[in-house]
Amino acid sequence: MKKLQILGTGCPKCKKLAELTDAAAKQLGLDYELVKVTDINQIVGFGVMMTPALAVDGVVKLVGKVPSVDEIAKLIA
Description:
Layout lengths: L1 E6 L4 H17 L3 E6 L2 H6 L7 E4 L2 E5 L5 H8 L1
Parallel strand pairs: 1-2
Antiparallel strand pairs: 1-3, 3-4
């Protein structure tokens, strides 16, 4: 099972990234868990200084933007 983590404090862009990541994972038919990491200390612990960010299995793949569902699918596949 893949662990997809949305790193962000709950801003509109963070929520949008969560929605699009969920859609991309469903489109790929992945077995996944979507986790929202909202604690600023945990976010900084990933080395992320700009949100939103996306981590896959603990590895940061995207920082500071909200890409398309297709772009997210490539990152999480």
